[in-house]
# Entry
Amino acid sequence: PSSAASDVYKRQAQLRRYEVEAGQMDRLVEWFPTIAAVRDQYGFTIEAAYADQENSEFVWIVSYPGNLDDFESAVATYNESPERAAAFEGFDSPVTQMHLSYVSAAL
# Structure
Protein backbone atom coordinates (compact mmCIF):
# COMPACT_ATOMS: atom_id res chain seq x y z
CA PRO A 1 0.00 0.00 0.00
CA SER A 2 1.09 3.50 -0.79
CA SER A 3 1.28 6.19 1.83
CA ALA A 4 2.11 9.88 1.77
CA ALA A 5 5.39 9.12 3.53
CA SER A 6 6.47 6.48 1.00
CA ASP A 7 5.46 8.72 -1.92
CA VAL A 8 8.22 11.14 -0.90
CA TYR A 9 10.77 8.51 -1.90
CA LYS A 10 9.36 7.72 -5.33
CA ARG A 11 11.59 8.59 -8.27
CA GLN A 12 11.08 8.68 -12.01
CA ALA A 13 13.94 7.04 -13.89
CA GLN A 14 15.01 7.41 -17.50
CA LEU A 15 17.27 5.03 -19.37
CA ARG A 16 19.47 6.87 -21.84
CA ARG A 17 21.34 4.87 -24.47
CA TYR A 18 23.65 6.75 -26.79
CA GLU A 19 25.22 5.45 -29.97
CA VAL A 20 28.73 6.93 -30.13
CA GLU A 21 31.03 7.56 -33.09
CA ALA A 22 33.64 4.82 -33.43
CA GLY A 23 36.78 5.67 -31.50
CA GLN A 24 35.18 8.56 -29.60
CA MET A 25 33.96 6.82 -26.43
CA ASP A 26 36.89 7.93 -24.26
CA ARG A 27 36.21 11.56 -25.10
CA LEU A 28 32.57 11.21 -24.06
CA VAL A 29 33.49 9.36 -20.85
CA GLU A 30 36.03 12.06 -19.98
CA TRP A 31 33.45 14.84 -20.48
CA PHE A 32 30.47 13.08 -18.84
CA PRO A 33 31.25 14.16 -15.23
CA THR A 34 30.87 17.76 -16.41
CA ILE A 35 27.25 17.28 -17.41
CA ALA A 36 26.57 14.89 -14.51
CA ALA A 37 27.51 17.70 -12.10
CA VAL A 38 25.02 20.03 -13.79
CA ARG A 39 22.30 17.38 -13.59
CA ASP A 40 23.07 17.08 -9.88
CA GLN A 41 22.67 20.84 -9.42
CA TYR A 42 19.12 20.52 -10.79
CA GLY A 43 18.14 17.67 -8.45
CA PHE A 44 18.81 14.69 -10.74
CA THR A 45 20.68 11.57 -9.64
CA ILE A 46 22.85 9.58 -12.01
CA GLU A 47 21.99 6.04 -10.94
CA ALA A 48 24.50 4.32 -13.21
CA ALA A 49 26.63 5.00 -16.29
CA TYR A 50 28.42 2.45 -18.45
CA ALA A 51 30.61 2.62 -21.52
CA ASP A 52 30.02 -0.35 -23.83
CA GLN A 53 33.17 -0.15 -25.92
CA GLU A 54 32.36 -3.27 -27.94
CA ASN A 55 29.07 -1.85 -29.25
CA SER A 56 30.13 1.82 -29.11
CA GLU A 57 27.26 2.70 -26.78
CA PHE A 58 27.14 4.82 -23.65
CA VAL A 59 24.28 3.78 -21.36
CA TRP A 60 23.14 5.62 -18.28
CA ILE A 61 20.19 5.99 -15.96
CA VAL A 62 19.10 9.31 -14.49
CA SER A 63 16.35 9.77 -11.92
CA TYR A 64 14.43 12.61 -10.30
CA PRO A 65 12.20 12.66 -7.21
CA GLY A 66 8.50 12.38 -7.97
CA ASN A 67 6.52 11.26 -10.99
CA LEU A 68 6.81 11.66 -14.76
CA ASP A 69 5.39 15.21 -14.71
CA ASP A 70 7.94 16.21 -12.06
CA PHE A 71 10.75 14.68 -14.14
CA GLU A 72 9.69 16.40 -17.35
CA SER A 73 9.28 19.74 -15.61
CA ALA A 74 12.79 19.43 -14.14
CA VAL A 75 14.19 18.46 -17.57
CA ALA A 76 12.64 21.58 -19.13
CA THR A 77 14.28 23.78 -16.48
CA TYR A 78 17.61 21.96 -16.81
CA ASN A 79 17.59 22.13 -20.63
CA GLU A 80 17.23 25.93 -20.53
CA SER A 81 19.85 26.42 -17.82
CA PRO A 82 23.00 28.48 -18.35
CA GLU A 83 24.99 25.75 -16.57
CA ARG A 84 23.94 23.17 -19.16
CA ALA A 85 24.77 25.56 -21.99
CA ALA A 86 28.20 26.17 -20.46
CA ALA A 87 28.84 22.43 -20.11
CA PHE A 88 28.16 21.88 -23.81
CA GLU A 89 30.08 24.96 -24.98
CA GLY A 90 33.05 23.86 -27.08
CA PHE A 91 32.14 20.16 -26.74
CA ASP A 92 31.67 18.47 -30.11
CA SER A 93 29.40 15.62 -29.07
CA PRO A 94 30.30 12.20 -30.51
CA VAL A 95 26.73 10.96 -29.88
CA THR A 96 25.17 9.99 -33.20
CA GLN A 97 21.81 8.79 -31.87
CA MET A 98 19.98 8.81 -28.53
CA HIS A 99 17.46 6.22 -27.35
CA LEU A 100 15.49 7.45 -24.31
CA SER A 101 12.86 5.60 -22.32
CA TYR A 102 11.25 5.80 -18.91
CA VAL A 103 11.92 2.70 -16.82
CA SER A 104 10.91 1.25 -13.48
CA ALA A 105 12.75 -1.07 -11.11
CA ALA A 106 12.26 -4.76 -11.80
CA LEU A 107 14.01 -6.05 -8.66
